[in-house]
Amino acid sequence: MSGRSAGGPARVPPGPPRRAMPGVFGKLVRDRLGLMTSAVTEYGDAVRVAAGPKTLYIFNHPDHAKHVLADNSGNYVKGIGLQQARRALGDGLLTSEGERWREQRKTIQPVFQHARIAAQATAVAEEASGLVERLKARRGLGTVDVVEEMTGLTLGVLGRTLLDADLGGFSSIGRAFERVQDQAMFEMVSLSMVPMWVPLPRQLRFRRARAELRRVVDRLVADRRAGWSPEADDALSRLVAAVRKEADPAAADRRLHDELVTLLLAGHETTASTLGWSLHLIDGHPDVRRRLHEEAVEVLGDRLPVYDDLRRLTYTSTVIQEAMRLYPPVWILTRQAVNDDEVGGFRVPAGSDVLICPYTLHRHPDYWEEPDSFVPERFAPENAGEPGSPRERPRYAYIPFGAGPRFCVGSNLGLMEATFVLALVSRDLRLVGVPGRRVTPEPMLSLRIRGGLPMTVHPS
Question: Is residue 27 a contact partner of residue 35, using CB atoms and an 8 Å limit?
Fold first, then answer.
């Protein structure tokens, strides 16, 4: 049963979604995006598949996403992949549950309040300007890996805006997180059945990466504790203050390490991914590049952007939104049912692994015309699906930052960063990809570009 109708999934007596797809475990290892895409294309919006000892329930309708992620979110905990990622990332905001998660969210939430984000606009603009100057210096000198450059940029923004720390001396962070993500995905596809002590090359690389992240975190924490002030309100100071209440010093150190590692990963990875995909898509669409350049010149002139420019850089915003539609930084949301549930008329037993995949949901043909095409105009105010617009679509047809209580806390900062960077790069430069080079998605914890994105730098 496919459930494909613009008015919602067809209702059936409660029962399991249709079983599908032989060889799922191999596809989970080799081609996760292909697995999800073929499942919903061939079998519809509700699919039950076997993957080794696991049974996965894939739901691909906005109503399904709303139910699992928001309306009945209390019945779901983090699922396959993120459960296993706990061995790699610890028990930070990304992987924690229950009261611990609520405490962590309460600690970090004030850092992302609107007024504080607005106050960080100058720092973000300066970091973006620094990126443009570094790229200008590479004109005529061969290719530059845009993914690497965007990772460095977002780490610089993270240090200045959230940690009040200079991360420039920690160039190893990006590579360390690549190896952590590789291990986390290995944990997912192997269902954590391979002991950590097995000396596989991947696991050896992960151990070295984890030790490097421990070194970075220990240095940041030591510096902050040495100069800690109760008046400081950046994320690192708030985390240090929160663990001071722990009676067990070892437990306090573990908690601080886990939360800071998660913040370092989440604080740079998704925005770097969004910028990389945006620049790749722009390269293939000269008219989009022209409109971005014209808007940046008109709005900014020769100055740096300020917070109020966000509402004026409207076309730039549509480009970013469309890039996140096609390549959502959080490409999959996994949950596990605590109790029996019914999703869109289908029975989901307690303990089941439930998958909501923004990558496929954002390409659902019932809600997106030409779903595989790059069309920023679909997010123009008159077409964005707002109530009363000519093209309304369900709220949960587009969830690049997740949804419900676990909606990404840093989304506004990430969007400001991506907008400023794209505007300044489009105003001053033209980045061109390597002819004939295939750009391939790599679905890790975020949707990365496999092997980086080499581009040459030219004047605008």
Answer: yes
CA distance 295 to 107: 38
Extract the runs of DSSP E, i.e. beta strands, from 320-394.
333-337, 341-343, 346-348, 353-356
CA distance 398 to 386: 12
CA torsion sign for 214, 216, 222, 228 is negative
Q: Is the pLDDT of residue 454 over 80?
A: yes
- Judged by DSSP in three states, 336 sits in strand
Q: How far apart are the first and last CA of the chain?
A: 51
pLDDT-based confidence at 84, cuts 50/70/90? low
80-84, 95-99, 108-112, 278-282 — which is least confidently predicted? 80-84
Domains in the chain, CATH or no CATH each: 1-90+331-369 (3.30.43.20)
pLDDT digits (tens, 9 = 90+) for 300-357: 999 999 999 999 999 999 999 999 999 999 999 989 999 999 999 999 999 999 999 9
Site of tokens 């699906």? 385
pTM for the predicted model, two decimal places = 0.88
Look up residue 304 and give its two tokens. Answer: 């740096």
Q: Does residue 161 sit in helix, strand or coil?
A: helix
Q: Each residue of 194-252: pLDDT tens digit?
A: 776 777 787 788 888 888 888 888 888 888 888 777 777 888 888 888 877 776 778 77
Q: For residue 197, give every residue at least 6 positions away whose Cβ sits within 8 Å of its Cβ, in sequence order, or none.
A: none
Residues 6 or more apart in contact with residue 437 via CB below 8 angstroms? 454
> Cα dihedral sign for 450, 318, 38, 194?
positive
Question: Tokens 């160039």 — which residue?
Answer: 171
Q: What is the DSSP string of 223-290?
A: HHHHT--TT--SHHHHHHHHHTT-S-HHHHHHHHHHHHHHHHHHHHHHHHHHHHHHHHHHHT-HHHHH
